[in-house]
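Researcher: Here's the sequence for the chain we discussed earlier.
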Amino acid sequence: MNITIDVIRKHGIKVEFSPNVFHVPCRQKYKPCNHLIEGDYSSAAFLLAAAAITNSHIKIENLMRDSLQGDRIIVKILGEVGAHINVGENFVEVKGADEKLKPFKIDMRDNPDLVPVCTVLACMADGKSVIQGIRRLRLKESDRIESLSSELSKMGADIRYSDNRLIIYGGRALRGAGIDPHGDHRIAMACAVAALKASGETIVHDAECINKSYPNFVRDMRLLGVEVLERKLDR
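Model: Thanks. This is the structure I predict for it:
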């Protein structure tokens, strides 16, 4: 919402906003304006989390420090769980993490797209984490509450759902598994990140669903040194 209003105003359009109401006066004219297309925090979150859980180093450019993107909160979350974060004017850098990630409690009502990757972080943290405000996840590309619970549980995670919240008991050893992302790009990427800390081989079926939001995800994982094989398998 804030991003939309900001873009419209940059084009000379007056917008008034009060809770649940937008007022755009008629007979206005759009004016030209140059824009910088900044990077997407919700997609970058998967690579930043991957660096944190593997105690690795990554620097992602074009992530603006003063961005209006709500999912910029991933930087704060990573710092709180124990990632060593460096934030510049137009980049975010993870320089490894504490040996044991810290559990956390967070309300994701305004950031539902971060729940899959935050659930993976919670699986790696040493203790009980709570992610609340997640009711909207029932209405995403899949029922993400069910998808996260079923697929990460296959890998040995201890995830429970109760009263609009996920409760994750982290620190358990994960194992490779065959993952059904339920046609959901964020479930596929979350399980791929979890696989980095799992023993054995993890197979993410129907991984082409990732193309909806991050078509270069596999390429970028390879650039980071992850061994990823793409092949068609009969189920």
